[in-house]
Specification:
The complex is a heterotetramer of chains A (704), B (103), C (210) and D (510).
Chain A: H1 2-6, H2 8-25, H3 34-57, E1 64-74, E2 77-85, H4 87-110, H5 117-136, H6 140-158, H7 165-195, H8 206-214, H9 220-237, H10 246-249, H11 255-264, H12 269-276, H13 278-281, H14 285-305, H15 312-332, H16 336-364, H17 375-378, H18 380-394, H19 400-417, H20 421-449, H21 464-479, H22 494-498, H23 513-519, H24 533-538, H25 554-575, H26 591-597, H27 600-674, H28 682-703
Antiparallel strand pairs in A: 1-2
Helix pairs in contact in A: 2-3, 2-5, 3-4, 4-5, 4-11, 4-16, 4-21, 5-6, 6-7, 7-9, 9-12, 9-14, 11-15, 11-16, 14-15, 14-20, 14-27, 15-16, 15-19, 15-20, 16-18, 16-19, 16-21, 18-20, 18-21, 19-20, 20-25
Chain C: H1 3-24, H2 28-48, H3 52-76, H4 83-86, H5 91-113, H6 126-136, H7 138-159, H8 167-173, H9 187-199, H10 206-209
Chain D: H1 7-26, H2 32-56, E1 66-74, E2 79-85, H3 89-107, H4 117-136, H5 140-149, H6 151-161, H7 166-194, H8 202-208, H9 214-231, H10 240-247, H11 250-275, H12 277-304, H13 308-329, H14 332-363, H15 368-371, H16 375-378, H17 380-393, H18 400-412, H19 419-452, H20 459-462, H21 471-489, H22 492-508
Antiparallel strand pairs in D: 1-2
Helix pairs in contact in D: 1-2, 1-4, 2-3, 2-4, 3-4, 3-11, 3-21, 4-5, 4-6, 4-11, 5-7, 6-7, 7-9, 7-10, 8-11, 9-11, 9-12, 10-13, 11-12, 11-13, 11-14, 12-13, 12-19, 13-14, 13-18, 13-19, 14-17, 14-18, 14-21, 14-22, 17-19, 18-19, 18-21
The chains are: A mainly alpha (704), B mainly alpha (103), C mainly alpha (210), D mainly alpha (510).
Chain lengths: 704, 103, 210, 510
């Protein structure tokens, strides 16, 4: 088993081999290439399980790092191609291969009959490879490579139905929006590596960068600038506000793609990278503050957007944005474990939800929940698994989502206890957004499964190849949470698994009160430097991002339960009996009219809590997202185009080119005048020569 | 005797030659003017031979003058041939009629 | 003021007068004769400067050969006679630059060499010159002979008529000043016609071919 | 073949195309096909010899000159016939022999009017000798002669086989580049006299440097800069490029983008930097700024283009901007990046021009609106190839374009020779704008792909029989397609070869 870690790169290479093989001769195979992808991922999945087991049982363990000195880059620096296997990598390997395998199996039935079936499988495998390159990277440059390849694959898969203009636009939008973030990522990586010059000849090495940061060898400006720029990359890739706009549009791709890319794996790349560089970003309160605030904004406003959607996939897309906001916010409040734990569990249940949605769409040939209804009887397996996924997403107690989301909220609470306002923000807004999440998921579930069938096709349950993955993912959506739950406080658990030795040192969070006050993220009081509240709250040893043995938090449990019940209840009120004549989510009247329109005690909460949230904030959020932020992106595009046109027409063609032509013309003008000197009269020439001689003679005489 | 006598005479002949070259239309006359200039130079060379190598074995000045006479003879031969050719082709020996080199 | 000076002044004046006459004479033959006088005068100047051998060469080559050559040239070119025919419009320019140059040069010469004397001595003997030519200067001398040979051949080639070419034809085919260049497309047929005329006696078959 | 003694091999390889051009000219013009085949044979033989040279090159000493020839040539001005090759020259030299083979193969089937393969291929081989000589000449006079030798054949290639505005484009190309060369020649003379009027040897001058006053360095570098910057071309000297590329025949465009532009950046690296280090240092920030303006500006211009070939030509401006940014960094990594970017751009853009040429042959137009989309449906292999090369050009990791761009930005963040102290902020800004340039690059390439590749073919083409990639095109394109991937996956192929040579060169900078 020990040797398995040394061969972790095989997991990465398998999908690459299968992608190439599918592209080369997939069409000749009986399953059109699907079997190659499934086989490669199956082997990779088995290996990942082995690796995960190995790292989990031995946790906390030293990371295994192996690399080639792949190429010199000049100046004595070297680009390594290598792998870094620790708990975090193993966790991601497990997550990516699991979801990818499920999607591979599922797609065989879902995509049956598609013209580009083989191409689809090649792309799926290629995508998996790209993501694994990023995950296993031992250096930031390799991570950037994986990151960009992931972006390309996502472009190819979103634009899978490229005959339609809207799909092309969605693909371009996704690629370009994330590419814009990549500017930040690339420059950030460059800045960080520049900080490593003189310390090492492998300036991109993640472990060395982390070590240098915690040893205080990197200057503050390097850390702040580098990490903020890298965070810009995460904002775009992980769908944080305001660069989330591409994610809902990306639902134009086939549903399995949405499950694989836009829910479970690709969008988590940003969070993963933040986790990888956590020791670096933890050096600056400013960076953490910015991350936390962006995360909080996203988790809340992103979730609101889902309220008014009719397209099931878009509801899920917005929920993804919101959940990613949780993860990012958790990083920003020091909840390293909480963040990646949520990433882990979210990957399973969001994949489950998307695949479930795919199953539904496959059955009714429509994405809209208004075209569904009553699916509970027709599609029992889909129904149960979808409900489990929804419960996990909503954070219902004892599901995986509950444990991981609570970790985040507790991390916020601890951080707040350290005196940072962002901790409070994460805690309370996180709670509120959990309610929103519950509500829209409940709305979707009710509209889809309850009431009468509104579709134009007789619904039918999907086949085994689709239901099988749903079942497995449903199990994981519940079970994965118990890796870090109060039921099993013993080690090893998820925390020890993903812990790296560097995180256990004293050097994390070196910033002092003065600094944090200056950054304006300090709340009332207590320091976080070398003593303390963090430790006191966590109840163990030195300052750490880890908070020790998981324990019950009855107060939080109570609040969560209340919010959950409230949201589900509200959703049931609106949608429990099928699609209402006028969907309240779509009746965006002013607040006063809504007040008048509702009666009774139940309406009180509706009036004072739901209506402002639903009718004002959500609309505002939708509008701002679609009109302003989206419009700004489009506007920048248009402005760029017109600027390009203008630049080309005026500056390039007239001014610059004009200057070039002008010099030629003036030469011609002068030559036309000067040529008259060439009269052809030799005697005049002779006279001119003699005159010149006279002048020269005089000049030389004068010089004497 | 004074050196400036021959020198001034040479200068005068040279300048008269220049005048002839510029002022005369007939190509043969232009050639004659060229001969004047060459001879002016010869006078100079001989005069300086006397100044620089009085009674010595070195005869560079005379040698140069001799060579110039030889070259001048060749030049007259070729020059007149060119004039004949020009006359045959264009029925004129006027240099200002031959202005193919103008723009 | 020695006797030599007096002789030099006389010879010099003769030479200068001949030169002026050469470039101002209205009659071509007079100009050529004036040139001969000038060249002879220069031979005299050489004598005064103790260059006896050179003076002889001057007489033989210039007065004997070159001047006659010029006379032949004048005869063969049937040049018209008269001031307008002989002088171009550049007389003013010519006078200005030649006069200017003379003033400048003579001033400089007087300033530089005003006090240098050439005292009486004997020039190098013919034996010295002979040794110099065939010992020290033999290579340039041989090159000069090559040059003369080349000039001889060149003059013959230039002055000789093309086969079958007569004076009248030459006048017809000459290129007038300002004529457009012959059109390329017309080139080949004209050549063919020319060749035909060259091969056949004029007037016999040329018309038929054309 | 011993790289220390086999200088003859380099000489033979260098003049083989010239001799080949002479042989071609002896063949009767009527033997159309035979001429084309003979050209393939000649270029292949030359390439085979260069392949042997490449194989026997001593990579352990890639920093030193190998295959040297150094004989007296024009003694009156101390010019020597001095050839050699180090790790910097080798890849460019190799490319100079690879591309003509592919071009000759391509020409066996495709030659624009007025035909005349003898003249066309002969010119191409003369051009080849000129380009190859530029990369191995180690004497300034010899370098200059080879550098200028390329102008004439390219002028005729554009002027005779070009598009409708070929006269304008060829004259513009010729005059513009010649204009720069004049200043370069003056600068060379100034260098020669300033260094004691005893040698033109690039290596000796580099070792002597820095010499002359600070004023001399500035003016001499300005001259060298003008000569090379127009060739590269650096913004704002780029306007000849789109015209030349648009009008040039396909093979001309390929060689122009593939090798000819590289002579400019090679000159900067081989001559400008080591011989005039102080001048280069003074100009570096300016070069950096112009480079980045070129990147952003070129990309903006691309967005406005409607002609595929012109778009690709403008993209060259942007890509060469990255190369110049690497040079402006004045450190080892920067020069590595510039050289890598050079080769990568040569392969990728050369390939794009091949594709644009074939596009024109299929659709008889290069207007995006005329093509109207749907290539992936209509001619799928061609469409995939086009997408592959376009994506390589926009700098996707794993393909050749990435390394030049990323490494250039990476190098520019900490420029060498003390620039980091005085211009830190400027260079950071440059890097950020260069990175934004990559987004714009991605933008116009994706937009281009969307308009020509995706969607359904318009009606006028729907029933038109259009050839997918033909056999001859496969043969001439496959090597480039493989190189794009190979360099992207294994950058050591270039970085490793150049490493010692670049380190050696940077040591001259002080």
């Amino acid at each position: 088993m020990e040797a398995l870690l040394e061969y972790a790169y095989v997991v990465v290479l398998l999908p690459l081999i299968s992608a190439a093989a599918i592209a080369a001769f997939g069409k000749q195979l009986p399953w059109k290439g699907a079997e190659l992808g499934i086989a490669a991922l199956g082997i990779g999945w088995l290996m990942s399980v082995g690796i995960a087991w190995q790292t989990f049982m031995n946790s906390p363990m030293e990371p295994v790092e192996e690399f080639f000195r792949w190429s010199p880059l000049g100046g004595g620096f070297v680009f390594e191609l290598g792998m870094l296997v620790d708990g975090l990598t193993a966790m991601m390997l497990l997550l990516v291969t699991t979801v990818s395998l499920m999607v591979h199996i599922y797609s065989r039935e879902y995509m049956k009959g598609e013209v580009r079936f083989t191409y689809f499988y090649a792309m799926l495998s290629l995508f998996t490879f790209s993501m694994l390159v990023l995950v296993i990277a031992n250096n930031l440059l390799q991570a950037v490579i994986g990151w960009e390849l992931v972006g390309l694959c996502s472009f190819l898969l979103i634009g899978f139905y490229w005959e339609e203009k809207s799909n092309q636009d969605a693909a371009n939008k996704a690629f370009l929006t994330t590419k814009f973030g990549d500017v930040g990522l690339i420059v950030g990586v460059i800045v960080l590596s520049a900080g490593m010059f003189g310390l090492t000849d492998t300036p991109f090495n993640i472990i060395e960068i982390n070590q240098a940061a915690t040893d205080g060898l990197l200057s503050t400006s390097t850390i702040v600038l580098g990490m903020l720029l890298i965070f810009l990359g995460c904002i775009s890739k992980s769908g944080q506000m305001p660069l989330h706009v591409w994610l809902p549009d990306a639902m134009a791709g086939p549903t399995p793609v949405s499950a694989l890319i836009h829910a479970a794996t690709m969008v988590t790349a940003g969070v993963f990278l933040l986790a990888r560089l956590f020791p670096v970003l933890a050096q600056s309160a400013l960076v953490m503050g910015v991350i936390a605030i962006v995360g909080v904004i996203t988790l809340f406003f992103g979730g609101l957007l889902a309220l008014v959607q009719d397209d099931l996939k878009k509801i899920l897309a917005y929920s993804t944005i919101s959940q990613l906001g949780y993860m990012v916010a958790a990083i920003g409040v020091g909840g390293y474990t909480a963040s990646i734990f949520h990433l882990f569990t979210h990957g399973f249940f969001k994949a489950l939800l998307f695949l479930g949605a795919g199953s539904l769409i496959h059955a009714v040939h429509s994405n809209n929940i208004s075209d569904m209804g009553g699916m509970r009887k027709a599609m029992p397996h889909t129904f149960w698994t979808f409900i489990i996924g929804s419960l996990a997403l909503a954070g219902f107690p004892l599901t995986a989502g509950f444990f991981s989301k609570d970790e985040i909220l507790i991390a916020g609470e601890i951080w707040a206890g350290g005196g940072f306002l962002t901790g409070n923000l994460v805690y309370w807004i996180g709670l509120a957004a959990a309610g929103v999440t519950t509500f829209y998921m409940a709305r979707a579930c009710f509209l889809v499964f309850a009431g009468e069938n509104r579709s134009h096709h007789p619904p039918h349950e999907s086949g085994k190849q689709m239901v099988g993955p749903l079942m497995l993912l449903a199990v994981l959506s519940v079970a994965s949470g118990y890796l870090l739950s109060p039921f099993s406080p013993d080690q090893p658990n998820f925390e020890t698994w993903t812990q790296t030795p560097i995180l256990d040192g004293d050097a994390v969070y070196p910033f002092t009160v003065d600094e944090t006050v200056a950054f304006g993220v300090q709340g009332d009081g207590v320091i976080a430097s070398s003593g303390s509240v963090l430790a006191a709250e966590a109840g163990d040893g030195p300052v750490s991002v880890l908070h020790g043995v998981p324990s019950w938090h009855p107060d939080l449990l109570a609040i969560v339960l209340v919010i959950f019940s409230l949201a589900v209840f509200l959703a049931w009120r609106f949608y429990g009996k099928g699609l209402p004549e006028k969907d309240p989510m779509l009746q965006m009247g002013p607040v006063t009219r809504a007040l008048v329109a509702k009666y009774g005690f139940d309406d009180f909460g509706y009036r004072y809590i739901v209506v402002p949230v639903r009718d004002v904030l959500s609309r505002w959020a939708t509008t701002s997202s679609n009109t302003y932020i989206d419009g700004a992106v489009a506007g920048v595009g248009k402005a760029t185009k017109s600027a390009a046109m203008a630049t080309y027409r005026t500056i390039d063609q007239k001014v610059i080119d004009g200057a070039v032509n002008g010099s030629a013309l003036s030469a011609a003008w002068w030559s036309d005048r000067l040529k008259r000197i060439q009269s052809g009269d030799v005697q005049r020439y002779a006279g001119a020569i003699v005159a010149g001689v006279i002048v020269l003679v005089l000049a030389f005489a004068a010089a004497r | 005797m004074s050196l400036i006598g021959p020198l001034l005479l040479a200068t005068f002949l040279f300048c008269v030659g220049i005048y002839g070259i510029i002022a005369r239309r007939n190509a043969v006359l232009v050639l004659m003017s060229v001969e004047l200039m060459l001879n002016a130079v010869n006078i100079n060379l001989v005069a300086f031979q006397n100044v620089l190598f009085p009674g010595e074995e070195a005869v560079s000045g005379l040698m140069f003058a001799l060579f110039i006479i030889g070259v001048a003879a060749a030049e007259v031969g070729v020059g007149l041939a060119i004039v004949f050719n020009m006359f045959r082709n264009r029925a004129t020996v006027n240099v200002d009629d031959v202005d193919l080199m103008r723009w | 003021m020695t006797g030599l000076d007096v002789v030099f002044v006389l010879v010099g004046l003769l030479t200068a007068a001949g030169a002026v006459l050469t470039v101002t004479s209205k009659n071509l033959v007079h100009a050529a004769l004036a040139l001969a006088v000038t060249l002879a005068g220069i031979a005299g100047v050489f004598l005064v400067l103790h260059a006896d051998f050179l003076a002889l060469v001057q007489l033989v080559v210039y007065v004997g050969a070159v001047a006659v050559l010029f006379l032949f040239g004048l005869m063969l070119t049937r040049a018209p006679i008269g001031r307008e025919a002989l002088d171009s419009q550049n007389r003013g320019l010519a006078l200005a630059v030649s006069g200017g140059l003379f003033v400048v040069l003579s001033t400089l010469i007087v300033l530089a060499f005003g006090d240098v004397r050439v005292d009486a001595m004997t020039g190098p003997g013919i034996d010295v010159i002979g040794i110099a030519i065939f010992a020290v200067w033999v290579l340039p001398f041989e090159l000069l002979s090559m040059l003369l040979l080349a000039a001889l051949i060149g003059a013959i080639v230039l002055a000789r008529r093309e086969d079958g070419e007569s004076g009248e034809e030459a006048e017809v085919t000459r290129i007038e000043v300002g004529d457009p260049p012959i059109n390329e497309s017309d080139g080949p047929p004209a050549e063919v016609a020319g060749d035909g005329q060259a091969e056949l006696p004029a007037g016999s078959g040329g018309g038929g071919q054309a | 073949m011993d790289p220390n003694t086999a200088g003859w091999a380099l000489v033979v390889a260098l003049f083989l195309p010239l001799v080949g051009a002479g042989l071609l000219s002896l063949m009767p013009a009527a033997m159309d096909q035979q001429i084309r085949r003979a050209a393939v044979v000649i270029t292949t033989v030359a390439f085979a010899l260069v392949a042997v040279i490449t194989a026997s090159f001593d990579y352990g000493r890639s920093g030193e000159l190998q295959f040297t020839t150094d004989v007296s040539w024009i003694t009156a001005i101390d010019a020597r016939f001095s050839l050699g090759m180090d790790g910097i020259s080798l890849p460019l030299f190799f490319l100079t022999y690879l591309l003509p083979v592919l071009c000759a193969i391509y020409t066996t089937k495709h030659l624009p009017s007025p035909g005349k393969p003898k003249a066309f291929l002969g010119l191409m081989m003369v051009l080849q000798t000129g380009m190859a000589g530029t990369f191995v000449a180690f004497d300034l006079v010899l370098f200059f002669i080879f550098f200028e030798l390329t102008l004439v054949p390219m002028f005729f290639m554009i002027g005779m086989w070009g598009g409708p505005r070929r006269d304008y484009a060829s004259v513009k190309f010729f005059l513009y580049t010649l204009f720069g060369s004049v200043f370069m020649l003056v600068a060379f003379l100034a260098i020669y006299f300033q260094a004691g009027a005893s040698t033109w040897s690039i290596m000796e001058l580099s070792e002597m440097a820095p010499f002359g006053s600070s004023t001399f360095q500035t003016w001499a570098f300005l001259g060298v800069f003008l000569g090379f910057a127009i060739k590269v071309p650096v913004w704002p000297f780029h306007t000849w490029l789109p015209d030349a590329h648009t009008e040039a025949p396909t093979v001309g465009s390929v060689l122009l983008a593939g090798v000819l532009l590289k002579m400019g950046t090679y000159g900067f690296i081989r001559i400008g930097l080591p011989i005039l280090p102080e001048g280069a240092l003074r100009f570096a920030p300016l070069i950096g700024v112009l480079a980045v303006i070129g990147i952003v500006y070129g990309s903006l211009c691309c967005l406005a283009q409607t002609d595929v070939k012109r778009l690709i030509a403008f993209s060259s401006v942007g890509h060469m901007g990255f190369v110049m940014l690497g040079i402006a960094a004045m450190n080892e990594a920067g020069i590595q990046a510039a050289l890598f970017g050079n080769i990568a751009h040569g392969i990728i853009t050369g390939m794009l021009f091949f594709l644009a040429g074939s596009l024109h042959e299929r659709y008889h137009s290069r207007e995006i609106s005329v093509i109207g989309g749907g290539m992936l449906t209509k001619i799928p292999k061609y469409g995939v190839m086009f997408a592959y090369v376009a994506i390589a050009s926009l700098g996707l990791p794993g393909l050749a374009g990435f390394w030049g761009e990323f490494t250039a930005m990476w190098a520019a963040i900490s420029p060498g020779l003390g620039l980091a102290d005085s211009y830190q902020g400027l260079y950071l800004t440059l890097v950020i704008f260069a990175a934004i340039g990559t987004v714009l690059t991605a933008g116009y390439f994706l937009w281009l792909l969307q308009r020509v590749n995706l969607g359904k073919p318009p009606e006028r083409w729907a029933n038109e029989p259009l050839d997918d990639v033909q056999a001859i095109e496969w043969v001439s394109w496959t090597p480039l397609l493989i190189l794009i991937l190979a360099l992207g996956v294994y950058p050591r192929l270039l970085f490793g070869v150049q490493n010692d040579a670049v380190a050696n060169l940077v040591s001259f900078l002080g």
